[in-house]
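name: query_chain
kind: protein
chains: 1
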Amino acid sequence: MNLERESPPGSSRASGAVLWYVVFNFAVSLCLCYAYILFTPDMDTPLSRVFVHGALVSNTAMLYLVLSLVFGALSLAPGVGVGLLWFMTGFFTVLHMLTVLDIIVFRIFRYHINSMVITLVFTEGARDSLHIGTLTVLTYAAASACVLVLEIWLARLSRRIPSAKPSARRALVFILAFALLFVTAEKATYAFADLFGVKEVTRYNRVFPLYQRLTVKRLARKYLGVKTDPEFKLSASGRTLKYPAQPLVRDPSRGGKLYNIVWIVIDAWRFDMLNAEVTPNILKFSESSLVFANHRSGGNATRFGIFTLFYGLYGTYWHPFLAEGQPPVFLDELMKLGYDFRIISSSSLSNPEFRRTVFVKLGPYITDHLDGVKADERDPELARTFVDWLNKRDKSRPFFSFLFFDAPHGPYSYPDTFEKFRPSNKNPNYVTAGRKDAHALFNSYKNAVFFDDHLTGMILDALERRGLMEDTIVLITGDHGEEFYETGYWGHTSTFSVYQTGVSFVLYIPGMPHGVIRYPTSHLDVVPTFMRILGYRTPPAAYSHGEDLLGKRPRKYAVVSGWDEAALADEVYTIVMPTQSHVAAGPEVRLTRGWRLADDERDVLRRRQADILTVMMEMGAFLK
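structure:
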């Protein structure tokens, strides 16, 4: 594999070899990036298919035009020769393997490697929830070796082409000119579609990584008087908090008993997993509790699900609250009331950054580094730690406990003795896993939930045996859901379908009879409910976007948040809209059931414009 053996003399020949090598890798990138098209759902019109294929060529060509200029210039330097080709071999191998990694992320989650992914990988405690498995690593390593061999062969081939011949030079010039013209035409097409709201084009601007959008809306509005669709975006960048909007006032005469409070959150416990097969212990407990059968988390990821649970605010506030290290008023008020605290988590509370947000004042009360490598070892340790604490706690004070089980987080951990549902797959290969694996993955997930149900039963039994149920409110829920290709996705964080945002929700209040609440409710409603029970008379709007769960005021819609998008979800439609300024997409309307694009999208947006504007205003209500 010695590149020197076919080295033709002269800088022009070296430049030709370098440019041909770039062209060959352009073809390799086109083939790899075609996977993005294969994994893109809802491309159901000829226009959308034509645009996406054109964007594939254009987006790839833009990158390679830059690389042609850079490497072409370097090749003119004296003495670079084969050394530059060796460098390019390593460069393109890394580039293609990063593309493969991004394709894996896109195939599963429908987004690209971004700040959220990087934060997940490199933040302290990431290994607690990130277990990709040996098979995935080996598969990726084998693919890397194959790409490296391909690159060495392409480098050798590039040096064999007689680049000095006029025909070879003309071919290179033609390829580069064609790429430049194609990029220009594609960008003009996107700008036109963006200007006139052609959704068959604009909704696909995030199919490919690093896609550069061209928009002329501002120029057209300013100089040509063109009317464009309204833009729905909100960014909290550069704004500070004004939270709460007014001081909270407590009136003990309005109830106000200082109950013990236990919140048990089971990672990814979705709405349809409260049943006799999967969660027999919690189901039995729910027979003396309130069951909210139409409940949504406030987000499609742990970060936003837990944030909305404790703050009662839209998940779009996560970023400013993290920046300012602002705790929730709910926990602040419990501290003022003299509560004792015990926070135990099977996964690190540094990732997501709950130590810097929700529990920023409660560091001494946190245990989040339990013994064990995975949740199948740490979750039982969590239950034991809490039960031991119950025996030692200060019984003169009411207490608040937050217990976070992690076993149902992918890749789904549980002891072999809890493998009730088969076939299962506890070690998925993330490089190759797809719809064909959905049944086995779903069974592994159910086994993990079954395992945590057993541990939850131990905790409930411990509370009962100590006579605490007469004075303790118990909440059991999930931080988000988990999907197994019911609407085309696996896991969570990728969309706002009910499978990723709908969660089970059980609330036990001493003395309150069993009931099933079927009207829509949300994690946003939890804090206002507890504040009312504790005797606070300040209106929820002063500190929350929620309402009392027991107020019998059905929600018109639920708001759920992701990293840079949010959605208004009701029984019929879910309106997805960007919440960060870097997202160039407009609002998108999907049918809540089935998650396909709505045919009457524009009519829905027109009818619901008032609701959208209300939510946007609320997203800024606690910002200065």
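note: The two ends are 63 Å apart (CA to CA).
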